[in-house]
Amino acid sequence: MADDRVQEPRGIPSCSLCTEPAVLFQRDRHRHLCGTHLIGDIEERVAETITSQNLIVPGDCVAVGLSGGKDSTALLLLLHRILGARKDIRLVAVTIDEGIAGYRDETLGAAERLVARLGIEHHTIAFKELFGDSLDAILKDREDQACSICGVLRRKALITGAERAGATRLATGHNLDDEAQSVLMNVLRGDLFRLARNSSADSAGRFIPRIKPLMYIHEKEIATWLLLNGEWNDLPECPYACHALRLEVRGMLAGLEYEFPGMMLRLMENKKIVESLCSSRPGGEPIRHCTVCGDPCSGDLCQLCQLRRSLGK
Ligand code: SF4
Ligand code: ZN
Fold it and tell me: Is a pLDDT exceeding 70 seen at residue 63?
C-alpha cells in the first residue's frame, strides 16, 4: 500500500521561493517559506477566500468579532490590511465581555489597544447588560456546562453587537483547525444536519450572515504570521475552557494532519459536499421562527430561549 506520509526535511532549509532561511514548512503543500513569503502567502489566501466565496462585497459593513485572542487579532489585522483602504467597505469590531474574573480584563485591554491603533470603530457588549448577569454568576454550580452555555450567549451577543454597529456581515476568526475539528465533531455526534447548517444557518431569516475568512489557514500559520508581524500577545486562557470532545478531536486531527498532510482540507471538502447534497434535497427543512423571541431556528424555541428556560431566566 502506498505511504503518503510527508517526511520533515533535516537541518534549516531555505525558502522554496527564494534563498532566505525558511520559518515554516507547509506540509500540505510540501514547501518551505521564509517570513516574507509566508506573510504574502497568508494574505493572498485570505483575500482569495473572500473573493472566491463572495464573503464581502462592495457596500458591506463587516463586524469583526474581536476577543483580543490570537485568531481574532489576526483576522482584524488581515482584514484591515486587505480592505482598510477600500472606501466602499466599512470595518468595525465587536467585543463581548462575558464577565469572567481574572481573564477578560486582559483580553479586553488587548482588544481596545488594537482598535485604537488601527482607528477602528469598536462596540463592547457585556453579558450583564444583555442577560442580566455575568458568565461567572450564570455558571454558578453549572461550571461543567461552561462552554455550551457561554457559546449560545456569545453567539447572541455577537449578533446583537453586529446589529448595533449596522453591520451586513459578521466575521469570526475560526481557522482551518477549528473548522476541521467542528466537522469531525458533528460526524462523531451523528449530527450531519448540523454539519450542513453550520455555515448557512445565520444567513437565513433576520440574522446577519456569518463569515470565516481564515477558514483555510492553519492555526500554526496564524501564530507564525502574528509573530512575524510583532503582534503576538501572551494572554491567559479562559479558566472555563474544557471542551472535552474538542480537545480529543484536536489532538487526534493534529496528529493525522502531521502524518497525512491535507487531511483538514479534505474534511472541509466533505463538508461542502454534505452542504450541497442537503441544499439540493427537495423539501428540505423550512426555516422556522422561535415562538418566544422570533429568531430563526429549527424547532419551536431557539437555543437561547431553550437555555433561558432551563436557567429559569
Ligand atoms: Fe466561553 Fe468556553 Fe470560550 Fe471560555 S472557553 S469564553 S467559557 S466558550
Ligand atoms: Zn428565541
Answer: yes
CA 73 to CA 232: how far, in whole Å?
9
146 close to ligand 1 (CB < 6 Angstrom): yes
- DSSP letter at 9? P
Residue 22 has pLDDT above 70, yes or no: yes
Question: Is the CB of 151 inside a 6 Å radius of any atom of ligand 1?
Answer: yes
CA distance 49 to 67: 22
**Under 8 Å CB-to-CB from 135, ≥6 apart: which residues?**
98, 99, 100, 127, 146, 149, 150, 153, 240
How many residues are listed for the chain in this entry? 313
The yes-or-no verdict on residue 9 having pLDDT over 60 is no
Strand partners, 65: 94
pLDDT of residue 76: 98
Closest residue (by CA) to atom 7 of ligand 1? 147
Q: List, for residues 191-217, the tens digit of each pLDDT value.
A: 776 666 644 334 444 578 999 999 999
Hey, is 47 helix, strand or coil?
helix
Q: What is the pLDDT of residue 203?
A: 41
In short, whether 188's Cβ falls inside 6 Å of ligand 1 is no
Contact (Cβ atoms closer than 8 angstroms) between residue 96 and residue 68: no
Crossing angle of helices 176-188 and 219-228, in 10° steps, is: 160
Closest ligand to the CA of 306: 2
Does residue 40 line the site of ligand 1, with CB under 6 A? no
Distance between Cα 160 and ligand 2 center (Å): 13
Q: Give the contacts of 190 (CB within 8 A, at least 6 positions apart).
A: none
What is the CB neighbour count within 10 angstroms for residue 297? 22
